[in-house]
Specification:
Length: 208
């Protein structure tokens, strides 16, 4: 499966805002956006005003970067959102949030979505008691996310146990902090999600 392998801090600099691609590191002085706020690449004097098409592209790219999707994956998810009833932009946001790697991140089991994706691919996470190595699978209401028994003996898991009391989860999820078992209480709504991009603008981008 294709994936982005270059420095992710360049993506934040290109977007002009923190996308939290490196988790807690983004909140420290080491954050590349704080140290070098300009976009990557050679600068040629004053920046030109961004066009409407350019703004639409930037919003679409921010969504892609935030959830760690390549263009083909993102376009496929957008097509799925179009087929559903309701507002396409909101449908897309809900589908992105329902991805298993995002849910693992939202539960606090990982510091970033890329780290959550790695946990799933390495078989540490169980979905409804069964191991899955597909980060893109969509969770449903009442799904249970837990850890594989052997993974609870790792040093990483012990670190998560120490850090989890200070973390909070979104209202559509619940978390048993003693046993590190999460549950999907309901499907997310756009109001439940702190999105850094506009779904309506993404729809406009693909509509042209």
């Amino acid at each position: 499966m294709a994936r982005y392998t270059a420095a992710v801090c360049r993506l934040c600099r290109r977007s002009g805002e923190k996308l939290m691609l490196k988790g807690s590191r983004c909140l420290t002085p080491k954050c590349a956006l704080d140290r070098r706020g300009k976009p990557p690449g050679q600068q040629f004097g004053r920046r030109r005003r961004i066009s409407d098409r350019g703004f639409q592209l930037r919003e679409k790219q921010k969504a892609r970067y935030t959830y760690g999707l390549m263009e083909k994956q993102f376009r496929r998810l957008f097509a799925q959102a179009e087929k559903q009833s309701g507002i396409t932009g909101e449908n897309l946001l809900v589908l992105l949030e329902r991805r298993l790697d995002n849910v693992v991140y939202r539960l606090g089991f990982a510091d970033s979505r890329s780290q959550a994706r790695q946990l799933i691919q390495h078989g540490h996470i169980l979905l409804n008691g069964r191991k899955t190595d597909i980060p893109s699978c969509l969770v449903k209401e009442d799904d249970v996310i837990s850890w594989k028994a052997s993974s609870t003996k790792t040093g990483y898991y012990q670190q998560v146990v120490q850090d989890i009391p200070a973390k909070s989860v979104l209202s559509w999820l619940s978390l048993d902090k003693e046993n590190l078992v999460g549950r999907v209480l309901s499907l997310p709504t756009p109001d439940d999600i702190e999105a850094k991009f506009e779904g309506k603008t993404i729809v406009e981008y693909y509509s042209r």
